[in-house]
Amino acid sequence: MSSYIRLRQICLVAPQLEPVVPDICGIMGLNVCYRDGNVAKYGLENALMPVDTILLEVVAPTEPGSAAGRFLDKTGGHGGYMAIFCCDDPDARGTHANAMGVRTANVIDHPPYHGVQLHPRDCRAAFIEFNHTDGSDDILGAYPPAGPDWQQSVRKDMTEALTGVEMQSPDPAGLARHWGRIIGVAVSKNAAGEPELKLPNASFRFVPGESEIMSALTFRVVDAARICDAARANGYGVSDDAFCLGGVMFRIAASA
Predict the structure, then answer these.
(1) pLDDT tens string 181-232
(2) CATH of residue 76
(3) How far apart are CA 201 and CA 7, in angstroms?
(4) pTM of the entire predicted model
(5) What is the number of structural domains in the chain?
(6) Cα-based distances in Å from 73 to 65, 67, 82, 117
(7) Are residues 89 and 65 in the same domain?
(8) Where are the alpha helices (DSSP H) in the chain?
(9) Is residue 21 located within the same domain as residue 84?
(10) Do 26 and 124 fall into the same domain?
(11) Do 127 and 21 share a structural domain?
């Protein structure tokens, strides 16, 4: 098997799933494909929505003391929770991160799925997870965290893809180098001169900010005006084709 890594999933955290999940679905034209009962052991409930082949997840704490609840308290409800990457070698990537001083926070071993989650304090800004599903390296193949038939819930009539993740930091170049070393992707510069990590299916850009958070997601859509009108209709303020939902900015870019 040749080495690979790509963005598989973005996880946001909210105080409750409603109204965040229904609003994401209604505004962006997405479907919930799965609610994973296994997250209850972490004091959570969740919902997953496919955006083409990348999964967008929202988790919410169901009991006091959960890691997600502490994250909400720390950030004041701002910022994405996890960036999840599928790869051929999650254990090797976890070992590499450990050698950098980035601790392993949790290992999930539910064959055929295996995941290694790294400590957010060491990653900075958000959790990083590496995972692999045995026997399925197809981007439209099995992905147990999204349920047995997540592919059937894919819609592209409004939102075509999740193309970018924005990370804020007082030292964006330093955070980019740190994340690049962890995930094994060289730092480049985008057209605006910002540090960037380019993966096969999405890019991470790093911008100045007061704190280190996952601050925004960029979506390619069929009709930007339609999405923005839907956001306004649901009570969200829209500026420059962007609005805040689920603790991050949703940035809307129309198809070329």
Answers:
(1) 999 999 999 999 999 999 999 999 999 999 999 999 999 999 999 999 999 9
(2) 3.10.180.10
(3) 7
(4) 0.96
(5) 2
(6) 11, 10, 16, 21
(7) yes
(8) 20-28, 67-75, 90-99, 120-123, 172-183, 224-233
(9) yes
(10) yes
(11) yes
Provide the token pair at 179: 């994340």
Whole-number Cα distances in Å, 46 to 77, 101, 158, 190, 234? 16, 30, 23, 33, 22
* Structure-block tokens of residue 235: 């009570």
Tokens matching residue 47? 């919902």
**Whether residue 195 sits in one domain with residue 213:** yes
Strand partners of residue 182: none
Backbone angles phi, psi at 152, to 5 degrees: -70, -15
Q: Which domain holds residue 92?
A: 5-153
Here the tokens at position 26 are 């209604």
Q: Are residues 129 and 172 in the same domain?
A: no
Of the three residues 153, 171, 203, the one that is the final residue of a domain is: 153
- Using one digit for the tens of pLDDT, what is the confidence trace for 23-63? 999 999 999 999 998 888 889 999 999 999 999 999 999 98
Q: How many CA atoms lie within 13 A of 93 on its CB side?
A: 28
- Higher-confidence residue: 251 or 74? 251
